[in-house]
Write a structure and sequence with these properties.
Blueprint lengths: L8 H4 L5 E5 L13 E6 L3 H7 L13 E2 L2 H4 L9 E7 L8 H10 L1 E12 L14 H9 L7 H11 L8 H13 L9 H15 L3 E7 L1 H4 L2 E8 L1
Parallel strand pairs: 1-2, 1-4, 2-3, 4-5
Antiparallel strand pairs: 5-7, 6-7
Length: 231
């Protein structure tokens, strides 16, 4: 495990059985030796190489299942299939985060764990962007949103590369299309707001779970990371 991810180790050590990691990409979770795992992503390894040429292809995991969380959720998998499910730095990219939380818990067995993390904006390129409100996310859930709109990516460019929005409209659209292909951050949280998001989402979805491990951005200088045990 990379040194900057050592704060996750105690959480991973709680895992047992067979699991699924979604969007592992080039940084798969370091799970205990007694666990087994499969990998799911919205794109194949070949597509990842195409859209992210800056990555070392040897670091990319071999994807077992292709599924788009925005379009189909985890419908490939029956309910309560896995002992644990891992979603690291994926939820900020999706169109409907509450729906994703619902799907994570659906495919996890009772007594199993959901590991979820999200970047804390104070330690990323999102630092200048506004926090996403729960009301916004609830509206996306109730409207059954399945696609990130261009408005989200314009907000990304405004906060991260504002100079791009001063270009000619046709050139701006080229950049919007590029960040869409790369599935850049659609939603933004800090650790406190993401913790609140999870509590509110579980309440809205009437899901029972308790947090058995967590570490926050102020401590790890990176992210919100938690292990939630499904009742």
């Amino acid at each position: 495990m990379s040194a900057h991810l050592n704060h996750r180790k105690a959480g991973y050590n709680l895992l047992t059985g067979h699991g699924l990691e979604i969007g592992a990409f080039h940084q798969p979770a370091t799970i205990p030796a007694h666990c087994t795992i499969e990998y799911c992503d919205a794109q194949s390894k070949e597509d990842a190489i195409k859209y992210f040429p800056e990555l070392n292809i040897n670091d990319l995991v071999d994807v077992n299942y292709i599924c788009d969380l925005d379009k189909e959720g985890l419908s490939l998998f029956k309910a309560e299939r896995f002992n644990f499910v891992i979603l690291n730095h994926v939820i900020e990219h999706v169109a409907n985060p509450i729906k994703v939380v619902e799907e994570l818990f659906r495919v996890t067995k009772p007594g199993g764990q959901v590991i979820i993390s999200a970047p804390d904006k104070n330690f990323t390129f999102d630092k200048k962007r506004a926090l996403t409100s729960f009301a916004h996310l609830q509206e996306e859930y109730e409207n059954q949103v399945t696609e990130v709109t261009d408005a989200h990516y314009i907000d990304f460019l405004q906060g991260v590369h504002p100079e791009i929005l001063e270009l000619a409209p046709e050139n701006v659209q080229i950049h919007i299309n590029s960040v869409k292909n790369r599935r850049e951050h659609a939603h933004v949280w800090d650790s406190q707001r993401f913790s609140e998001f999870m509590l509110n989402a579980l309440e809205l979805l009437q899901l029972k779970a308790n947090c058995v491990f967590s570490t926050l951005g102020n401590d790890n200088k990176m992210e919100y990371f938690s292990v939630l045990k499904k009742h």
